[in-house]
Write a structure and sequence with these properties.
Elements: E1 4-7, E2 10-13, E3 16-17, H1 18-25, E4 29-33, H2 34-48, E5 54-59, H3 66-74, E6 78-81, H4 84-92, E7 100-102, H5 109-118, E8 122-125, H6 128-140, E9 145-152, E10 174-175, H7 179-187, E11 192-198, H8 208-227, E12 234-236, H9 254-264, E13 271-274, H10 278-281, E14 285-295, E15 302-305, H11 314-318, E16 324-326, E17 333-339, E18 348-356, E19 363-366, E20 388-392, E21 395-400, H12 405-410
Parallel strand pairs: 4-20, 5-6, 5-13, 6-7, 7-8, 8-9, 9-10, 9-11, 11-12, 12-13, 15-17
Antiparallel strand pairs: 1-2, 2-3, 4-14, 14-15, 14-19, 16-19, 17-18, 20-21
Ligand LLP binds near residues 204, 239 and 318.
Length: about 425
């Protein structure tokens, strides 16, 4: 459930007409609903509440906006971060250091040191050498770094290849067959408190079976590590739960996911950690755009909108589907292609899509844009950096300003020899 709906024929975000936001802020603009973020956080927390001791860390990469992170911190979530920049955001938004998990396949020494300095809750190790570097940095500071080993279970997540992470051929994690010996070696590092294992097989998973298969492999590894005398207190189950992008699409619910987890992990006796991103933020945001032209095309007309692939990269990158809904649907439909102004054919949001009839000047939204939307935006074609708005009931605020091309150019320098 979300809080984006047409009222009196006009799209509202909670108690605010999206037209009012377009008027005040201009387009394109991302709009997030606080009530939806809070609801999704609560639904996920309720879903995993039956699996004993646990910790939910929002995957900041999905939406790192500071105001969004503050909403989620207040809703009781911690943060899963993959860079020093994300860690700084989580801290700035008010997340407790102990509630922050540092994932990421290539953490620099400076990032590891910053994590130790902040006293974050857990480092997810991706390479044996990372454990040694982290252990040495921690020991030099008189600390023991809480850490888990990220394991690659070699399970096909059945999602888009570019967002699959759990196959042996992927760059992520340690081969599950190497994990016991590596765990033995790293457990002897004085600067490490090696306390568990982590797994994450991919994103936008539409089926629980691959997740269950990976968790069962982790359960076997857990038993093997304990048999070898290791104390395992934490298992991080990652993120990956998919969300519906198409009208009427059904996916496993958080409650079904939680029931599966409770079943598979019932004898584990560990603190479970979760890193949901998309399922919290995806359907809590839309990208509001205005139609520039409707241009005749071969087969179908082209609806050219003022949002482009630089604002919402997912269709160009992953052939992703984002539902397109008019601000004031007339009830009549048309079949069209939808594209942005960027000068490449990849800047196409939809081909031969049945949509509400729209004309020059009309407003519309791309739905399910709250995760991996604004954060993946660029300024390609010297377009502005897209702004973000947060709605809370009947009020709204710009939580990230539009950065105009002139401001971006101002950060460039002309050498005095030119
Ligand atoms: N934990 C780890 C270690 C991850 O790599 C990811 C996502 C997550 C958690 C969160 O996954 P989620 O619950 O959001 O599925 N830009 C792509 C998605 C990339 C996901 C990368 N890792 C997209 O727009 O589909």
């Amino acid at each position: 459930m979300d809080h984006f709906e047409h009222r009196d024929g006009v799209l509202h975000v909670e108690g605010v007409s999206a037209e009012v936001i377009a008027e005040a802020v201009g387009t394109p603009v991302y709009i997030y609903s606080r009530a939806t973020l809070e609801r999704h956080a609560q639904v996920f927390r309720d879903a995993v509440a039956g699996s004993g001791r646990h910790h939910v860390a929002f995957a900041v990469k999905a939406n790192p906006n500071l105001a969004v992170l503050r909403v989620l911190a207040k809703a009781g979530l911690g943060a899963d971060v993959v860079s020093g920049g994300e860690m700084a955001r989580a801290l700035a938004a008010g997340m407790a250091p102990a509630d922050i998990v540092f994932s990421g396949v290539g953490k620099t020494d400076a990032e590891l040191a910053a994590g130790l300095e902040a006293g974050i809750g857990q480092f997810n190790l991706e390479v044996e050498e990372e454990g040694r570097v982290l252990g040495a940095l921690a020991a030099a500071r008189g600390q023991r770094a809480p850490a888990v080993l990220r394991v690659n279970p070699d399970v096909d997540a059945g999602t888009h290849a570019k967002i699959s992470t759990g196959r042996a051929e992927n760059k992520f994690g340690i081969a599950i067959s190497d994990a016991p010996a590596m765990f033995d070696r790293l457990a002897r590092e004085p600067g490490l408190d090696l306390r568990g294992i982590a797994v994450h097989i991919g994103s936008q998973l539409g089926d629980l079976a691959p997740l269950e298969a990976s968790y069962r492999r982790i359960g076997q590894l857990l038993a093997d590590l304990r048999a070898a005398g290791h104390a395992i207190s934490h298992v991080d189950l990652g993120g990956g739960l998919g969300v519906p992008y198409r009208p009427g699409e059904t996916l496993p619910t958080p409650a079904e996911f939680g029931a599966m987890v409770a079943r598979v992990t019932q004898d584990w006796d560990v603190t479970l950690m979760f890193e949901p991103g998309r399922v919290i933020a995806g359907n809590a945001g839309v990208l509001l755009t205005r139609v520039i032209w409707v241009k005749p095309g071969e087969g179908h007309p082209w609806v050219i909108v003022d949002a482009a692939m630089n604002d919402l990269a997912r269709p160009a990158l992953y052939d992703a589907y984002h539902d397109f809904v008019a601000m004031r649907p007339s009830g009549t439909r048309m079949t069209a292609n939808i594209a942005g102004p960027v000068c490449e054919s990849g800047d196409t949001f939809a081909k031969a899509r049945e949509i509400d009839v729209v004309a020059r000047g009309d407003l519309a939204v791309f739905r399910t844009a709250g995760a991996y939307g604004a954060t993946m935006a660029s300024t390609y074609n010297s377009r502005a950096k897209v702004p973000e708005v947060l709605v809370d009931g009947t009020r709204f605020a710009v939580v990230s300003e539009r950065i105009e091309p002139q401001a971006i150019a101002a950060a460039e320098a002309m050498p005095d020899w030119l």
